[in-house]
């Protein structure tokens, strides 16, 4: 190597540093967008109540062909129905192997509330409501409709992002009620009707170990998931670029990020609430 010639490692180092700086800037942009979206919820309630009502109806019951099957409510309901049925199948057979199949009601009251219900609901939100919001906003971005709204003086973040976040928080409450009920019903029917366990035995252990405080925490967990999912998906839709292919890429990235956040929220809340004592006593 001649004196004064640039090292071959310099472009690699510059590329690595540039990647780190770009990633750090993207984190700052996302954080700024998330904060602005949350703060603008007040503007959305004040000025865009009609849009909020439209988003609530669209997210819960669906629009177009999706309305035929009931939209997100039916989709999440069937997901938790399947998960509850797995509790009956796996829980009963596993416990029967050690002679304590009567505790299947306990597994339903314990697992559905703390893990399965919130996690499946979060996944359903990301795959339905969240992906739809990203696709809608991405299509508006590449068609320059968002720029047109801003030119007309419309608060684009409040009108497009904050309304969807607020609608997601409203929709998740009845949505989660249906999800938890479907998981409970599936586990009970599977255990008592298919495996023939006495309904009295199942109901005794189910009601004994069903903690109302855990249900409240799971509701808060579902609401936190809804906020996280919606701000992530609205960000990726709001910043989509590159035409239709870019919108599809934005949807994929948003779903991937929101699924990670859903699992992370479940982990953090579980450690925070149940990490020490577990809020559970088998001798109850």
Please provide a written account of the structure.
The protein has 284 residues and is an all-alpha fold. The chain is built from ten helices and no strands. It has helices spanning 9-39, 41-47, 49-61, 71-96, 104-142, 145-151, 156-194, 199-209, 212-238, 243-274. Helix 5 (104-142) packs across helix 8 (199-209). The radius of gyration is 23 Å and the shape is elongated. Mean pLDDT is 83; it is low at 64-69.
List strands and helices in order, with pairings.
Blueprint: H1 9-39, H2 41-47, H3 49-61, H4 71-96, H5 104-142, H6 145-151, H7 156-194, H8 199-209, H9 212-238, H10 243-274
Radius of gyration: 23 Å
Mean pLDDT, all residues: 83
Content of β-strand: under 5%
The biggest beta sheet, please? none
Number of helices: 10
Helix content: over 70%
Termini Cα gap: 77 Å
- Can you tell me the residue ranges where pLDDT is under 50 for at least 5 consecutive residues? 64-69
Give a count of the beta strands, DSSP E runs of length 2 or more: 0
What overall geometry do the principal axes of the alpha carbons give?
elongated
How is this structure best summarized?
The chain has 284 residues and is an all-alpha fold.
